[in-house]
Fold this protein.
Amino acid sequence: MAHVSLPSPTSPNLRMRERRGGLSPREFAASVRRAAREIGEHVSCDARYVGRIESGEIRRPNYAYERVFRHMFPGTTLADLGFTPRGESRRAAVLPAPRDEENDDVQRRTFLAGGPLAVVTALSWDTPAQAQDSPGSRGWAERPPAGVPGSGAVPDPGTPGAPNARVGLREVREVESAVRQIRLLDDVHGADTLFDRAGHTLRTAYQLLNCGTYTARVEQRLQAGAGELAISVGWLAHDSGRLAEARSLYAEALATARMASDAALEAHAFCNTAFLARDAGRPREAVRAAQAARSAASGLGSARLQSLLALREAGGWALLRDRGSCLKALGEARTSFEQGASEADPDWMSFFNEAELAGLTAQCWAALGEFESAAEWAERAIALQPAHFVRNRTLYTAELAHDQLGRGAVVDAAVTGMSAVALLAQVRSTRIRGMVSATAERMRQHQKVPEVSDFLERYRMALAS
């Protein structure tokens, strides 16, 4: 068996505990969120996260938290704050990689399975009754999933498998099916509960691509499938607050697209990169990535894709407070959208409907500071979104509460915020929870208002549950 490095036992981070001083974990978490907003970062720090840091469970924060902590404590390094410096040890992955693969960004996320049949098992996603209740949605049963460590479905990653195993259309279809399943589940539930499972599936797909043998036809579909899977897992990382991991996964998908000369995959990778850059507070990168996506998609014949990409560009311009460029891009998005759907529209765009157009438009107006218009578009997004897409309904509701508060409608924001809190129980999305958390933090100054007090109490109870 190949040697696998195991993480060392954790020890308490006393230096971060000292930095907290007399603040409670909840109060310190609030100060972290405030510091993040000061530098344009988006983190969802709460008392539980503070506890994980101080217990030593989190040995090295992601890049967003690192920037926030260095902003809070100028002149410090990760070591000064009790964390493991980058480059000294690799953060434990779901499946640790053999040492001789540490410098290969793709192979680091692969494992050797026992041939195509075991790979198919690892790629399979079962369907539980819970997700079947929602039209067009599927999920997996409440049991140890196939392919997850400890389930016995696939060999240990340190066990050499069968390199050069023959890969055919059956395995390709399993990769493509996994992509569809992830998207359907995310539409209903959000990303937090899906990320680890999907990451295992991604490693399996790249194992097929890197270690299998196949025909040229199979290779083309397998590259596209693996790239789309990397984007899907990247989105789960993005939505669950793992922004650095999302960035890496999108870059991997883009590299796959470039190697395969796949314009559709390249457009998708740049599209998600633009969205991530906007959420990470890098608006110029968001604009550049969106423009690169529009260029890659120019020959694909999908007006709806061009509409979404124009919205991604508009989001970057909005954060830059370039109102003219933002409105121009929004107009192009609307014009392209109104051309209607077509056979050329990519499968992954199933989420992009009139409600999503309205929701992304609301975010642009909010970033421009024009909250009256933002609230109108957010209300439209809620009204247009099908009821079974709980995740997006929660997102738009959280957006509306933010916009109502921005325009000074405190009572309306509190009532809408209570609706968002009620929906949170059905959604596992760090990103959406962060939006609600930010609104709650801003409302505390109005907590003498009865509706605000009710909202804050319901939010507190939701966090405790």
Q: What stands out?
A: DSSP finds 20 helices and no strands in the chain.
